[in-house]
Structures are given as structure tokens and as C-alpha cells.
Amino acid sequence: MFGGQIGLSVSQKKTETRLLNAERPTPVKAYGADLPQTEQFTYLGSIIRKDGGAEKDIKSRLNKARNVMRTMNNIWKSTQYSTHTKLKLYRSCVMSTLMYGSECWRMTKSDAAKLSSFHTTCLRKILRIFWPRKIPNNDLLQRCNMEEMETLITQRRWRWTGHVLRMENDSIPKVALRWTPEGKRKRGRPKQTWRRTVEGESKDLNHSWATLGRLARDRQKWRSFVAALHATRRERH
């Protein structure tokens, strides 16, 4: 193995492999032995699956955010902290845990609904709005000066896209962004991918990849573009 040439070694007991979308998995060997293959693995805190889906990662993030929310129960119940302070803590502790890696999620409608439900449930708890009291989600978000969860994730996705578009043309993320696999895809409706999501949103504003690339070079213009995209999304809904 190449690593051995520079003094590195691979632990057979600790190393697993994952081939993405391979119809005929080829064994990966280390020192003559096959390394075990896994359906998913955790990398830098995010769960990577062979099909590229984010369902498991989103479920993991929701569980971790619930735990953070639970450990801060005394703060949410306290009368010593203002609502403004509680919301700042919610953003910095709970939302940062929940949204880690969300810029790369391939979300389904079901995923978006679960994230939105968690978000509004937390805000109701902070504002101490419990049954039988009711408040529409739009009014709740307005009182908290918050965007809906799907909009917040869209914002992160487009911020990340801007970073990628500003990279050198031969950088791996930029090459991967525009890469189209060879061959024919399987029959049936194509899966919603991260790139199809971005392309669909940019199409609503009549922007091509070339236009997006020019916009991304100017950070201020890119911020304005992102804001306009969010405004368009709110108008659609």
C-alpha cells in the first residue's frame, strides 16, 4: 500500500470500507487480507451512506439536538433569563448541533417535516406555549424572529455552494459539483439529489451555472442573491 512507503500502516481491526453505488463490490485488501465492508460510516460527525441519503444523519442530528434541549431544561423553565437570552442559547447550542453538516444534506419532504416539527416544538417550549394554548407557526416564528427550518438549511446550502464556486476549477469539490456520471441510470423516477435541489432553486431565478459562478466571485452580490432566493421561496409558499 502507498501509505507503507511513507511510514503509515492500516489497522485491519479498525478499518472498514464502503463502496458507493457499486453493483459488484470489489474487495479492498490490506496486507493481503480483505477489509470488511459496511453500509454506512461516520466521518467528521456525519453519517455517510452508500446511497448518498441523509435520513440516518438527520435522525442522528435530531437525537443529539433533543439531548441538548433536554439538558438545558432548567434554563428554559427559569424566570431569571429573558426570552431573548433563551433564544440566543437555542441558536448557539441546539440549532448548531441540529444543523451540523446540513449544507450537504439530500433532504426529502419527510426529513424537512421532522426538522420543522422539532424546531417549532422547541420554540413553543422556550416561549412556554403549551396545550390548550395555540399559535400558528408563522406567528410563532415571527415572535421569535426566526426563519422556518427549511429556509435556514437552504441558506447554509447556498453559502456552501458559493464557497465551492469560488474554488479553483481543479479542486475536488468543484469538479464533483459539475461532474455527470457516465452510462445510463436505472429505470424509474430519478432520486432527488443535492445538485438537483440546487439546480431547481437556481432555475426559479433563471440562473445558469455560469451566472452563479460569476455571482459567487463577489461575496456581497452572492449574499444578495441568497437573500433574493429566500424571498422567492417565501413567495412560492
From TrEMBL:
State the protein's name: Endonuclease-reverse transcriptase
Matches recorded under PANTHER family? REVERSE TRANSCRIPTASE DOMAIN-CONTAINING PROTEIN (PTHR47027:SF25)
- Lineage start: Eukaryota, Metazoa, Spiralia, Lophotrochozoa, Mollusca
